[in-house]
Amino acid sequence: MAPLPHGACPPVGWVCTSRAAVDLHALDVLRLSCTYTKHASLKRHRRTRRTFSTPGATAIAVLDAQSDPITDCTVRPHGGPPMALPAGTGVVAYNAAISRCARAGLYARALALFREMRGRGLRADEYTLPPLLNSAALLRGPPGAVAALHALLLRAGLAHHLHVANALVDAYARLPCAGGAATARAVFDEMPRRDVVTWTSLLTGLARAGAHAAAVRAYHGMVAAGVQTDEFAVAAVLSSCAGSTALDVGRSVHAAAVHLGLCPFRSVGNSLVSMYAKTGALHDARAVFDAMPARCTITWTALIVGYAQNGRGRRSLEVYTDMVRSGCRPDYVTFIGLLFACSHAGLVDAGRDHFRSMAVDYGIAPGPDHYACMVDLLGRAGRLDEAMDLLNRSSTELDATVWKSLLGACRVHRNAELAERAAEMVWRLDPTDAVPYVMLSNLYSRARRWGDVARIRALMKARGITKEPGCSWVGVNGVTHLFHVEDRGHPRAAEIYRKVEEMTERIRAEGYVPDTDWALQDEAPEGRERGLAYHSERLAVAFGLLAVPAAAPIRVFKNLRVCGDCHTAIKMVAKAYGRVIILRDANCFHHMKDGECSCGDYW
Fold this sequence. Notes:
By secondary structure, the protein is mainly α.
């Protein structure tokens, strides 16, 4: 087994870097994780039954008891602290009680029973540790709890049991800390034996941690090792294909799932719909959806969100109508997708109706994500006062994403006073977030308030805030080509730069005038124009024109929000070259064709 990592993993939270109302992908990964947890635990339980069903292994009778006096005292939903088990209780009964608590979601009680068991001098065995590791990871308590159990199982010599090692990989992979997935990988690498549960635990953990490229590599390693993938592994890697925009890999996983007969599993179908939608392949997402023999709320929501993110807001509402008619009940995430769709389609009245309906008709209390969508909806319509009034009347604890949504609307409508108030709220809630500084700087720049631009930059420097470097990438024949601003590191850099110059000449002939408000203002005017021409997204588009067949769309992805001048320029490039360019930035998809964009020039 891997040695214990030095130090504990400090807990970290999600940091939104986009002006988008919500990070819908993060929510999808969370839901996939919950789905996997539920079904994988059942699958492992079936395997555990087979493992335990040997002479002398009497724990299974207690574990499966529907009304057992020993275990019932630990899982009563309205009970207080866990009752102590009777004196003389043995390890087998403790294992059964701990396992039952873990399966019931009573993680603190499971750990308390273990402390009681240890206090009575009983030694943990290979059946004690898996539910404890699961409880320690899911309790979200002290980050060192999993590491402490890791140390205990090493001292007890239990690391060689495959199901114990699998539980350890899964526990580290679930930790909400920067090093959790890396430690899971280290434990995995030291294991002498692995099975499909081992690989799937690693894949899911990497996907949950946002290490999508690593998850895709792990999937390829799983296939190379000759381990036959199951529905949980496929769902996990498809989530990472969506997160890393690896459409080609996603298609190959889809083909493998068809070959293995896994597509009828709803979790696989849901993941395919989400993956295709999040890589801009809406036609494929719809085809998978239509072919699914059964659909659930997650299925419908994935398609609703997919249409919304790809600028097809009205189609999202049509799908929602079909969902309700089918008898499927919407949930919290469904309404996020609906409100996002209304926002991007400019449907203010429909958005208000759905915001009201979620509470009145479905009993779903609006959360910060829904308020962020409503602020975005009202902000797009220029109703900033109404948006502010909505926030003032909210009884929900609002997070930084809500205020960044308001800040984005203020930037578009050049309301500096309200933007400054929104930025102050973001700083109060998330002092390390660079987004409000960048947005304020852009707003001041467009208003020619150069002194305020300099003040914001000085403030960032004084507070140690650094902006995330922008980059763009395009996939060609399964290879990802990454570009930064004025990047000359690509083997075909000379060709790419000549193509950029050609692009600029063509669109200038069509009336393009660079908007230097989006450039660094400490450069000369000609330097600002040149800087705009070599932004990462334009280099990626130029390479796409060189390398992507004329009949295929050029798919470009950017880690940050696309700048306004590049948005205009790339729309014109799409028209000048007769190409379809699909640009996904940190906020949404931009489907560009014939000089038009699916976002309606508001993103």
